[in-house]
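Supplementary Methods S3. Input chains for the assembly prediction are listed below.
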Amino acid sequence: MTVGPSRGRRYVMLLLLLCGFSIILFRLVTLQVLQAAELTAKADRQHQKTVSFEGARGMVSDRHGKVLAMNVEVPSVFGVPTSLESPSTVARHLSPVLHIRSGELEKKLRQDKSFVWLARKVEPEQGRRLEQLSLDGIGVVMEGRRFYPKGPLLAHVLGFSGMDGQGLEGLERRYDSHLHGEKRVTVLQRDALGRTVFPKGLAEQVPTPGHALTLTVDEVIQYIAEKELEEAVTHTHAKSGTVIVMEPQSGAILAMAVSPRFDPNVVAALSPDRWRNRALTDTYEPGSTMKVVVAAAALEEKVMTPGSMVFGENGHMVVANTTIHDHDKLGWMTFSEVIQKSSNIGAAKTGMVLGEQRLYRYLQGFGFGQRTDIDLPGEVSGLLKAPKDWGRRSLASISMGQEVGVTALQMVSAVATLANGGVMMKPYVVSEVRDQKGRLLKEMLPQVKRRVVSPDTAQTMTRILEGVVTTGTGAKAAIPGFRVAGKTGTAQKIDPRTGAYSSTQFVGSFVGYVPAESPRLAMIVIIDEPQGEAWGGAVAAPVFRRVGEQILNYLGVSREDTVKIALATKDY
Amino acid sequence: MKALTITAGMLLVFVFVWERVDVVRLGYQIERLKVQKVLLERERDQLQVKFSALTAPERIARVATEKLGLIPPQQGQVLMVNQQREVPSPTLPPVEQVRLAKHVSTGRVSE
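Predicted structure tokens for the full assembly:
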């Protein structure tokens, strides 16, 4: 008989095996069930890498494809404070590269966080230097940064975008839905050495960049307008200034300059007042430039003809217990002379002949008291009260450009209507939206808003406005070799302390178009609070001339005295 | 027959393994090329910004006046020449485009 292990020893073995398996089972349940979620996440962190891709913000270019705004990837620097042994040493190394005080960096690096931004969107050279330093706990990632390579050029129209790529002002804000790139999060696999393994279909996962905008603006025309405006504002010690150049036949904005300028690459230190697009957001009492609208209405309604005689009351007329003055003691004059000599009394009389309802209808027809609906944010509708709210003097006041608030854009649109034969066009600054492959997504075509006056009235007004420049108050707007039509304006500003018209603060302006017989551009020049001589004819008209002359030369518009050379040619 | 089957089987396994290894290798290669593409695109964008800044009208005007001593043309110094066509001449030799001021003729002209 074979003697085996005793029953006791067998039980002990069985017990040991059971214990062993129980431990394994317990560990298995712990790992696979109880800690499953936590451990899976931990494994994923080791083997997977979550990458957030954000498509680049779309490019903005002028009408000839010159880049005005684009995105470039630049380094952003971050720290991992929990992995730093000596934050002060690291901060001392980083300080000269990032141009940030060592103490400030050390404060960030001593925070009880696993991630802190140290400097975002720095220069590429700074990123390269940091990589050379190879500091533990300091990392560099690439982020898209918005660049405006032309600096302040067109800044008030372009606006700017924020640190996280969202449009904050100007076109960047208005067209943000088109400009911003698509954001996509992708999970990549990493091998044992931490290298990223190229997954299938990643190429298809690259986020789509934002759409590109092409503007109606011409950067050279914009430069000319900004340069001349800046010089005029500096020379006259004015508070600010605006120039808008528009194509009358289409409503396309060729230039929109605002002074003082700002650089959209460095907006952090500036106040919102600096980047406000005054051409759309600020209203002013236009003064005599409003007489253009009153005169056009009177001609269209046939209550006046260019030869109608108007008495100037020798320079002063009492209306509703107040006296209206002219700059000279004017007597009898033709209706054309009323405009050319810029007679307040003549304009007031014209308004009275028209009557409240008709004048109001034409003011609305020319776009006052309503937005032009230009594709830029922040536009205001101005101030135009309904006739029921007018006072006893209102008819006379509005006829000479008081008691009404307009924007520069409204005024240039109104005068461009006359340049376009009486048809008002909708102003616009973006002509095309294209995708990243250059395919046309949206094309903005010129839009007719309405006919305001007949072609005959527009033509008569052109003749009258030419007289303003040849014999009237706008002589300094004359451009040799071209026929210029336009009107000067000098408006007193309201003194906020007294609530009355100031005797020292004025807005000088000139609005017109050239060449008068076949207008290529309509333009308004506004100089706000010039010091010394403040007449529109003295401060704004010369800017019109300088800007207009350079633009016409640039566009190759023939002068009246153009030399004509005949070339013998043959077509095949 | 048995040896042939084993050899064929081993060959298949070898091809399968080789293919898998090659896919991984190509994956790394694609990854490297993609990184290179990103770097080149980044450089292109940086150069484009630089080009755009250098060709800004403001800078060109500054260089023209301050470095080259040029001045804007004064009144009467710019003469626009307007091209007019005459009756085609049959004796004219064919030449390329003629550029005169801002007007371009695509026809043929006498030299």
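Chain A has two domains: 51-74+148-212, 219-555. Residues 219-555 of chain A form a domain with the Beta-lactamase fold (CATH 3.40.710.10).
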